[in-house]
Design goal:
Length: about 270
C-alpha cells in the first residue's frame, strides 16, 4: 500500500519537521522514543507499513495489517499539554483532532469517539490512540502520540484482538466507502487537523468538553466503567471535563470523574 510514490509524498507532509518511513517496524512508538533520545527536531513523525509489536492501551496487542495507517507523532510541551500531569487529556485531544480530519476525508462517515481513545463507526472500531509522556531533563513533557487507523485494509468480520472476546469488530474506510485512499494524503489531512486541535485546546482548554461532545457516542447513555484494581462504576455518561476525565452521573445524582479506565455501554 506504500508504493514508492506514496513514500516520496511523505517528504511534503505539512507541519512536521522530521518524517521517516519503515516498511516493517516493531512499534512506531518505540522508534519515536528513540527519536527523542537522538534529539530529533519536533514535531517528528514515524510511519510504518506494518508493525510486528504494535500495542494498545493496557499492554494489549494492536492489530497492524497492511493497508492500515500506522504512525507515531512526537511533539513537545509547546504543542501538547504543558504538564505531564495532563496525561489523561492528550488522547482525547488527539481523538477530536483525528475525528475532525476524518470528517474532511469522508464526510458521510458516521464516526464517533469512545472515551478515552477509540474511533468508532457503529459498533466497530476504526482506529485508536496510544499516548506516552517522556519528560526531558528539565521535566518538561514530550508527547508520543501513536495512532492506528484502518484505511485500505479489509476488516469485515475481523476482531481487533484474540486476547479479549469483548473487543469490538473492526472496520476500515475502505469497508465503509468501497474505495481506496492515498495513505499519504490521508495522513496529511490528519496532521493538519491535529495541529489545529492542539492549538485550539492549548489556547482555550475550556472549549474541549463541547468539542468532544460533538463526537461523543456515549453521551446520555448508561455505561459501565472498569478502572482497574477492582474499581468499577456505572451511570450515565455526561461528557468529559476540561482535563479529559469522563464525567459519570451515578444513580444518586452525583457526578464522578474517571481519569482512566475502559468504558462500555451498560
Amino acid at each position: 500500500m506504500w508504493d514508492v510514490e506514496s513514500q516520496q509524498a511523505l517528504e511534503t507532509l505539512p507541519w512536521v519537521r522530521h518524517v521517516e518511513f519503515h516498511p516493517t517496524l516493531g512499534s512506531t512508538n518505540d522508534r519515536a522514543r528513540q527519536l527523542l533520545d537522538e534529539e530529533t527536531e519536533l514535531p517528528a513523525l514515524v510511519v510504518a507499513g506494518q508493525q510486528t509489536a504494535g500495542r494498545g492501551r493496557q499492554g494489549r496487542t494492536w492489530w497492524s495489517p497492511p493497508g492500515a495507517l500506522l504512525a507515531s507523532l512526537v511533539v513537545g510541551d509547546d504543542t501538547g499539554p504543558e504538564s505531564s500531569r495532563a496525561m489523561a487529556v492528550m488522547a482525547p485531544w488527539t481523538g477530536v483532532g483525528l475525528a475532525d480530519g476524518l470528517a474532511r476525508i469522508e464526510p458521510a462517515l458516521p464516526l464517533w469517539l469512545k472515551w478515552p481513545n477509540d474511533l468508532m463507526v457503529g459498533d466497530a472500531k476504526l482506529g485508536g490512540v496510544l499516548v506516552e509522556c517522556v519528560p526531558d531533563a528539565e521535566s518538561r513533557p514530550r508527547w508520543i502520540v501513536g495512532f492506528g487507523i484502518n484505511v485500505n485494509n479489509e476488516c469485515v468480520g475481523k476482531r481487533l484482538s484474540r486476547e479479549d472476546s469483548g473487543d469490538p469488530a473492526a472496520i476500515s474506510l475502505r469497508d465503509f466507502s468501497g474505495r481506496s485512499y492515498p495513505l499519504a494524503d490521508v495522513l496529511g489531512t490528519l496532521l493538519l487537523a491535529l495541529a489545529a486541535a492542539y492549538s485550539q485546546f492549548r489556547a482555550e482548554p475550556d472549549r474541549f468538553p463541547e468539542r468532544w461532545r460533538v463526537y461523543c457516542g456515549l453521551q446520555g447513555r448508561r455505561v459501565r466503567i472498569d478502572g482497574g484494581n477492582g474499581r468499577t462504576g456505572a451511570g450515565v455518561c455526561v461528557g468529559v471535563d476540561a482535563e479529559g476525565a469522563l464525567r459519570l452521573q451515578t444513580d444518586s445524582g452525583s457526578v464522578e470523574l474517571w481519569r482512566h479506565g475502559t468504558v462500555r455501554p451498560a
